[in-house]
Amino acid sequence: MNRTPPPQAIPFIDLATQQARIREKVDRRMAAVLDHGAYIMGPEIAELEEKLGAFGKAKHTLSCSSGTDALALPLMAWDLRMGDAVFCPSFTFAATAEVVAWLGATPVFVDVDRDTMNMDPAKLDLAIEAVKREGKLKPRVVIAVDLFGLAADYAAIRAVCDAHGLKLVSDAAQGYGATTDGKLSIEWADVVCTSFFPAKPLGCYGDGGAIQTNDDDLQRIMHSLRVHGQGKDKYDCVRIGMNARMDTLQAAILIEKLAIFPDEIEARMRIARRYGELLKGHVVPQALAEGAVSTVAQYTVRLPQPERREAVQAALREAGVPTAIYYPIPLHRQTAYERFEVAGGELTETDGLSREVISLPMHPYLSEETQDHIVEALIGAL
Question: At which residues is N6-(pyridoxal phosphate)lysine found (predicted)?
């Protein structure tokens, strides 16, 4: 590692450099949409869905207006309702549990594994058993989150779901494209949901999302729900739906972003490995098993002295290094969600991680020079 002067304006994520790489192609794509004028459900929607299907190895792909709607549509299709229990982590963004409560069901928060920071399959099994014994709620669905781009332990979680007869949703908002021994989450999950929010590894220039499944019936119902529950046309509503379409312009942008996405995942992994080598013995990164490929949405580490986190952030800020905390307050301790079920009565690892973690700049265009400065600043601040 070479000592370097502070680079100017280090970005936490670098959309500008990515845009410069594909700007001409994106401009042509957007101009084509402006020329044909099909701003809603234009031909780029079908093209994107086809290309996403090939990338995600899914029989069906349904684009939609956001990652939140991507989570909501399959739950609506399964007729989730009051009295149903949906098991999900608390150490995640609000959308994961929000859609559950929005539909009248009850989120049951499950603790995570300290090393991977993802849902702990053993604790999930115990949580389902506890809900069954209590008898107040009916276990229906598990939502596993690919936190920071690392795929959840889907093989183990699928086994738990099968043992209890539950559906499995992959919340791949941060981890779309992540693999375990070469396998995508569609290999285990009933449905894969992702977000194309601009800050995501695969993001558009606004809001957008997508759902992937191999279930023909589920796809048929979600396709209807996406456009107000329509039947043969929009004036034949056969179920209560919503307006969850993706704009054609966003699809056009995503087609070009998807083309470079595999290369960007490879770059993110290379940068993450280098972070790990340079920071070894100073902080503890999210554990990555052999054979796992993360999309590294955020490079998140545990600090050795959590009580100094604010001081570390301040020192890094002084050195021109931006940081973020994901997540400072877990969902089960936020006002809107504190009334919901907490498996086992407490989430020890979740609470601990919320105090310990800090995220460093991460994007596919992070130079070694800039990375050296970030690492030097962090080690000096510890």
Answer: 200
Catalytic site residues?
200
DSSP character at residue 370: H
Residue with tokens 């709620």: 137
Separation of alpha carbons 54 and 72, rounded Å: 23
Q: Which of 205, 228, 254 marks a domain boundary?
A: 254
What CATH number has the domain bearing residue 366?
3.90.1150.10
Token duo for residue 55: 């990338």
Domain of 71 in residue numbering reads as 15-254
- Total number of domains constituting the chain: 2
From residue 263, give the alpha-carbon distance in Å to each of 112, 161, 320, 379: 30, 34, 28, 30
What is the C-alpha separation between 332 and 147, in angstroms, rounded? 17
Binned at pLDDT 50, 70 and 90, residue 234 comes out as confident
Q: Are residues 237 and 266 in the same domain?
A: no
* pLDDT of amino acid 121: 99
Q: Does a structural domain hold residue 9? A: no
Cβ partners under 8 Å of residue 217, min gap 6: none
Give pTM, 2 decimals: 0.96
Eight-state DSSP code of residue 141: E
Enter the tokens of residue 330: 């877990």
Measured between alpha carbons, how far is residue 377 from residues 38, 269, 306, 353, 371 in Å?
50, 22, 17, 22, 10
> What pLDDT band is residue 8 in, cutting at 50, 70 and 90?
confident
- How do residues 306-326 score in pLDDT, each as one tens digit? 999 999 999 999 999 999 999
% of the chain beyond a pLDDT of 90: 96
Whether residue 6 has pLDDT greater than 70: no
Q: What are phi and psi of 32, to 5 degrees?
A: -65, -40
Which residue, among 51, 64, 119, has the nearest Cα to 262 in the 3D structure? Answer: 51
* pLDDT at residue 268 is higher than 80: yes
List C-alpha distances in Å: 84 to 14, 100, 188, 226.
41, 9, 22, 23
- Cα separation, 224 vs 227, whole angstroms: 6
Confidence of residue 233 (pLDDT cuts 50, 70, 90): confident
H-helix segments, 280-331: 309-318
3 within domain boundaries? no
| C-beta of residue 194 within 8 angstroms of C-beta of residue 242 | no
